[in-house]
Prior knowledge:
The protein is an alpha+beta fold and 293 residues long. Helix content is 35%, strand content 25%. The strands form two sheets. Strands 1, 2, 3, 4, 5, 6 and 11 form a seven-stranded mixed beta sheet that branches. Strands 8-9-7-10 form a four-stranded antiparallel beta sheet.
Amino acid sequence: xxxxxxxxxxxxxxxxxxxxxxxxxxxxxxxxxxxxxxxxxxxxxxxxxxxxxxxxxxxxxxxxxxxxxxxxxxxxxxxxxxxxxxxxxxxxxxxxxxxxxxxxxxxxxxxxxxxxxxxxxxxxxxxxxxxxxxxxxxxxxxxxxxxxxxxxxxxxxxxxxxxxxxxxxxxxxxxxxxxxxxxxxxxxxxxxxxxxxxxxxxxxxxxxxxxxxxxxxxxxxxxxxxxxxxxxxxxxxxxxxxxxxxxxxxxxxxxxxxxxxxxxxxxxxxxxxxxxxxxxxxxxxxxxxxxxx
Length: 293
Ligand code: HSE
């Protein structure tokens, strides 16, 4: 059995901790034979455990502690600590692995609630499970229906990821956010997010992009950690992109473009980046978790 989970880009500017989109980079878990202890074969580096302390297996054991261990092969195209949902993809894969091996018959809502409780917010795990663009609200105090979410089709466009070489931990990136926010500013920030979501649903990427690029919740505070963001915004918008925003907690920046301009903008980004970032075209993943034999 093979379980595949897509990378995700959270926030899309003003949809902080709520909006996310699945993109075409994947975590793959191949389930091999049963054995006495869990073992994960991977080539992801020495810092990633191969035993039960791996996030994949802590998740599996949380969901279904009695499972018979297996040998697993883990492959990931999702760079770590870059804002593309690498840990969410592992949590979601762990839940699906427990679901399949334990024959738990979890539906998407149950998977979403379990994954969000582990991750702390639903914006990455929801599109990793469901695919495409998902808007969610999390109510941690509820025991059932703690995550309410709606999946929508994201309009067709070019998607470019500008992935800096340096990692940025989500924890570090959340530590620069304010504890409180004046009511008037929150009303403005929320209005920007509302228009963004409505414009995506209406298929108006020009307006959606304008709102994505005008976030007030988190990007202004994270600027200090992601100095490349300001210049990317200026340049990409001047080159005709719809939007340019921090992917999740960063440091990756996502750029949405009219399809016919994607190649030209990638070329310009490559010239600008001086080899300090990997610049890759992506597509929207419409499916989310995929299980195959
Ligand atoms: N919404 C989260 C953040 C995504 O921006 O911190 C990263 O986990």
